[in-house]
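User: Please run a holo structure prediction.
Assistant: Happy to. Please share the sequence and the ligand.
User: Here you go; the ligand is flavin-adenine dinucleotide.
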Amino acid sequence: MTTDTTTDTTTQVLITGSGPTGLALACDLALRGVGVRVLERRSGAHRESRGKGLTPDGLEVLARLGVGERLTAVGSDVPVLRKYFDGAHVSDTPADGGGLLIGQWQVEEVLRERLAGLGVRVEYGARVTGLAQDPAWVTARLADGREVRARYAAGCDGGRSTIRELLGIPFEGYTEEKPTMVVGDVRAPGLSRAYWHQWFSSEGGGILLCPMPGTDTFQLQAAPETDADGEPLPPTPEGFQRLFDRYAGIPGIRLEEAGWLSSWRVNVRRAARMREGRVLLAGDAAHVHPIAGGLGMNTGIQDAAALARTLAAALADPAPAPGGVLDGYEAERLPVAERLLADTAARHRRVLAAVREPGRGTEAGMR
Ligand SMILES: Cc1cc2nc3c(=O)[nH]c(=O)nc-3n(C[C@H](O)[C@H](O)[C@H](O)COP(=O)(O)OP(=O)(O)OC[C@H]3O[C@@H](n4cnc5c(N)ncnc54)[C@H](O)[C@@H]3O)c2cc1C
């Protein structure tokens, strides 16, 4: 039986993180009748576009959780990719692959609604800072001193995972020293919302504006501005406008910042292990990689499906053998993470090469 256990300190599975991975895992477990709690350090839900695409595989997993129709109602087809080079319109490329364009916050909202319908609410302002394990239980300590005990715990707490660190699991791979992209959500009154605009330049660099469905905003991605020494500058609304003027050069379009701006650097890393005792990792906590191809959120959602199956089986076994069913999760998902890192690093290189040619753009990373 699933319950909202915010006043109880014990549950079957404790999930840290309410991104797409943690929420998909919580829904899947709740649908299987497993008691779950979801702890989230943020004070409330966000509205950041971030991971903006569901692949057919990701959508299929979510449809099994009962949210397929809702997601397709909120999202849209990926629009035509309109490519410009040195300010001139060069080509239009239909998006292929059958994916759904949708903001990450909208995916999370749909999953949260589903979860609430199953009797579970995300617990905000709950930052996990400590973990202890014995042969039967995991105990998580929160920043405010509370403790929560569970039979199993899942670290779905993103690329800078506290859970992974607390478990002492190395995050193997590399991080590029400098941010290579600024990202954010903006309004661009007057700019057509029929296209994913992609401006590139013979000098290198560029700016992309993708219209996000169900909103009046675009997701902006651009090469960062640099200072006199060539060092990348952090994102600012004024900087977004300067980048737009430089690469798109459409007089009269004024960008308005819409609540999210960030910078992004290349990370190609995966956890050396996905389990330590009764605690398992999923999503960005277990693997981070270039966004070319839009596979991060989707892979996390697929991790969640495998982890829900694993945990439900482990909980159903009154005397599980050490490792046993739990080892199957890592055996299934670690090779996927390994392939994902190599695949997305290659897609990233293809995009970087393609955008130097007039008429080409992010479609180079889609296959
Ligand atoms: C510009 C951009 C575009 C992208 N495009 C795509 C795309 O098209 N398709 C795609 O699949 N992916 C895309 N991604 C990647 C995608 O955003 C990530 O892979 C995805 O967010 C991973 O989900 P997650 O749930 O594993 O982690 P996260 O979304 O990072 O969620 C982790 C959660 O854990 C919480 N948390 C962290 N630490 C703690 C703690 N100690 N205690 C409690 N809570 C904690 C955080 O607040 C957060 O809410 C994109 C990313 C960016 C930046």
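Residues 325-354 form the longest helix (30 residues).
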